[in-house]
Design goal:
The protein is mainly α. It has 17 helices and no strands.
């Protein structure tokens, strides 16, 4: 595809675009979720404790945060395709190296690099959405992407568990390498450049720093950029702790845990579908502020159930499902509103959103393991992340003031 080809005209979305961009955006999530059922075996095989093994999951988010800050400006400067192809190639390389990692320290370091290069997928997907769509339509497309991403928790643990049982956890990374090769071919063959030469950023490091400075000075943008990170922190606190909580504390098998993970993925998918329908009639900021209030109610219930044991495993799972379902309404709406404020530097803006999302989630989610790794620790961190999200939206934006959504829509 020629680098200087004009961007496609801004038009109604097609299933092809949604599927391609959703598959790209799901690669980091798939890379995390396929590995989850094998965490206890990885810890035993590499002679590591549970908290260090969990770090091999959350460290990807830290690498992703750094990667997005580097790759975002590159996509504004060189277009979306080139950085994306390099990122996918390095995903393949790091996956193969993870498959032969001799100890946990090496694996953690490789996962950090894997997260860095995987960041190209998320940056490209979000920037391409902003290249082609704006406002409620962008929120709708992002919701559809969340639908595709939500399929990862439905499929990845099942695939990962099957691969690990047939061979070993190391072969999970071989499968991820094949996935990277496949998506590289799809991008090369079917994804056109959406950021033409005449619209690309010019200048060197000073221009990049100036672009980030412009975004950092926009208080409303930064508040909205923080919300997907806090939403992801809620989700990842569950993701990195759940294998130990449900397999070791509650005694679930690999298959039962994969089914549980899939059911929670259904909640994320359902909320993404609901959001895609709602944004046609309701401003994204109104959906966002309402979803956070409802999520908070169920987060409190979840902590109470974890502390008291009321309802047993079933009570815990029902409350957890509700919290995760409302989490699915946060990132798409917050990201769409934030991106609409800075269309001229969509790649850099997407990088800030993605970096904050990965960085916050990467910092917060290991806290559950540090606090003991049980159900109470997991639910406490989830509730704490929600409290921060409501405080940010309420104090740093006019979202909860009369007519506040008009200022942000």
């Amino acid at each position: 595809m020629p680098e200087n080809s004009a961007a496609p005209p801004r038009a109604r979305s097609s299933s092809r675009w949604v599927v391609m961009l959703g598959a790209l955006a799901a690669i980091p999530a798939f890379t995390v979720d396929m590995y989850l059922p094998s965490l206890p075996e990885v810890a035993a095989d590499l002679g590591s404790g549970a908290s260090f093994a969990a770090l091999s999951v959350s460290i990807m988010l830290v690498g992703g945060a750094a990667g997005q800050l580097v790759i975002g400006p590159l996509s504004d400067r060189y277009g979306r395709r080139r950085p994306l192809m390099v990122g996918l190639a390095m995903h393949v390389v790091t996956s193969l190296l993870c498959a032969v990692a001799p100890n946990m320290a090496v694996l953690v370091g490789l996962r950090l690099l894997q997260g860095f290069f995987n960041a190209a997928c998320g940056v490209a997907a979000m920037a391409i959405v902003r290249d082609r769509f704006v406002g409620s339509e962008a929120a709708r497309i992002l919701s559809r992407l969340m639908l595709i991403i939500g399929i990862a928790p439905l499929l990845a643990p099942t695939f990962g568990s099957a691969v690990a049982e047939l061979a070993s956890w190391r072969w999970v990374f071989g499968f991820l390498a094949i996935l990277g090769v496949t998506m590289g071919f799809v991008v090369w063959r079917f994804l056109p450049e959406t950021h033409p030469v005449e619209r690309r950023a010019t200048g060197g490091a000073r221009s990049v720093v100036g672009g980030y400075g412009h975004l950092l000075r926009d208080r409303h943008f930064m508040a909205l950029a923080l919300l997907p990170g806090l939403g992801m922190a809620v989700l990842m606190s569950y993701v990195v702790t759940s294998p130990f909580v449900f397999q070791e504390v509650y005694g679930l098998s690999h298959g039962q845990f994969s089914l549980l993970f899939a059911l929670n993925g259904v909640g994320l998918v359902a909320s993404a579908q609901l959001n895609a329908a709602l944004v046609r009639r309701v401003a994204p900021i109104r959906i966002l502020r309402t979803a956070l209030v409802l999520q908070g109610f169920f987060a409190v219930v979840l902590l109470v159930v974890a502390v008291t044991g009321a309802g047993g495993l079933v009570g815990l799972l029902v409350a957890l499902w509700c919290v995760l379902a409302f989490t699915g309404l946060v990132p798409a709406n917050a990201s769409a509103i934030a991106l609409s404020r800075h269309g001229e530097r969509a790649g850099t803006a997407a990088a800030v959103i993605g970096a904050v999302q990965s960085g916050v989630a990467g910092i917060v989610s290991p806290l559950a393991g540090a606090l003991g790794g049980g159900a109470v620790a997991m639910t406490s961190v989830m509730l704490g992340a929600w409290i921060c999200a409501v405080a940010v939206l309420g104090l740093a934006t006019p979202a909860y003031r009369r007519g506040g959504w008009v200022q942000l829509a």
